[in-house]
Amino acid sequence: MSSSQEFFAAYDALLARWPTSTAEIDVPTPYGTTRVHAYGPADATPVLLLHGGGSTGAVWFANAPALGTHHRVLAVDILGDAGHSIPGGRPLRTTTDLMAWLDALLDGLTVSRMHLLGHSYGGWLALTYALHAARRVDRLVLLDPTQCFAGFRPGFLLRSLPILLRPTPARARVYLDRETAGTDTDLGWKRLYALAVSGFANRKLVVGRRPDPTALSVPLLVLLAGRSDAHDAAKVAARARKAVPDARIEILAELTHFAMPTAMPTQTSHRITDFLADNQEKQAAPGAV
Q1: Per-residue pLDDT tens over the stretch 161-176
Q2: Which segments in the chain show pLDDT lower than 70?
Q3: 200 SS3 class
Q4: Which of 18, 160, 171, 268 lies at a CB distance of 3.0 to 4.6 Å from 22, suitable for a disulfide?
Q5: Cα–Cα dist 75/94, whole Å
C-alpha cells in the first residue's frame, strides 16, 4: 500500500467515528474543490471548523456530537493541506487569496453568518477571517492558536525541522509522541498526522503576517494548552487579555498543543458549547438586536 493509500485509509478510519448522519460535501471555489464534513440540524446556526496544519477536517470527530446538538457543524479540509480538498484554478498564494477562498466556500455553502472555530494554524486563519469579514462571524473560538497573540518558541521550531526537511511517518510519530506525552491524544489521529507528513510532502499552507486582534469586533473565546511547547500559554493569555479585554480566556493545564482537539474532548466541547449557548441566549433575550 502506498503512503497516499495509507493516509486515506487512516482518514476514513477517523471519519467512521463521526456520527452516522454526517454528510460529505464538495464545494467548488475559484481555487479548487473543498471537502466539508457536515453534521447537525440543517437549519441551525453553522459552526465552521478550521483544523491545524496536517490534521484534516476529520480531526473533529470527538467534538462533532456535542457541537452538532444545536449547531450545524461544517468541518473543512483546508485547501492546500492534506485531505480531500483539491486545488485547481487560481493558486492560493497570499492571505488575500485565503480570504477570497473562504468567502467563496461560505457562498457555496449558502452560509451568510456563522460561528468560527480554529485550532493552531486554523486559529490564525479563523482570526484573520473574523477581521476580514466580521459581518459573517457571530462568535470566534480559538484553540491554542499560533501566530495570533505571540510567535513560536524557538525550541519548538527547531524540533519541527526534522519533519519539515526530511518528512517520514516515523519522524513525525516520534515528534508527536514527544509533543503529546502525558495526554490521551487519539492514536488514530496521530497515525493520520504522521502519514500526512509523507503522503502530502508538497503541501504548502499560506502563512501571512500576524493579525491585529485589537481590531476584533466579535465575541472571542480562547482555550490555551497549558503545556504547549509552541508558545508560553500564560504569556499568550496575558497578551490576548490586553488585546481583547472582553474575551473569555482559559488555560487547560493538562493539554499540549498537539493534544487539541482530540484529548479531553468532553471538557473542551463543554466550554465551546457554553460560549456559543451564551450567545444564543443573548440573541433570544427580549429587546435584543
Answers
A1: 777 777 788 888 988 9
A2: 1, 201, 279-289
A3: coil
A4: 18
A5: 22
Query: What is the DSSP secondary-structure string of 225-266?
Result: ETT-SSS-HHHHHHHHHHH-TT-EEEEETT--GGGTTTSSHH
pLDDT at 283: 41
**Antiparallel, parallel or unpaired: β 86-87 and 46-50:** unpaired
Quick one: which of 150, 91, 141, 153 has its CA closest to 116? 141
Contact 47, 73 (CB under 8 A): yes
pTM for the model stands at 0.94
**How would you classify the pairing of strands 137-143 and 248-252?**
unpaired
What distance in Å separates the CA atoms of residue 159 and residue 155, rounded to the nearest whole number? 6
All cell numbers assigned to 22: 454526517
The model's pLDDT over 233-277, given as tens digits with 9 standing for 90+, comes to 999 999 999 999 999 999 999 999 999 999 999 999 999 999 999
Rounded distance between C-alpha atoms, residue 235 and residue 104, angstroms: 35
* Stated length of the chain: 289
Rounded Cα–Cα distance for residues 1 and 88 (Å): 27
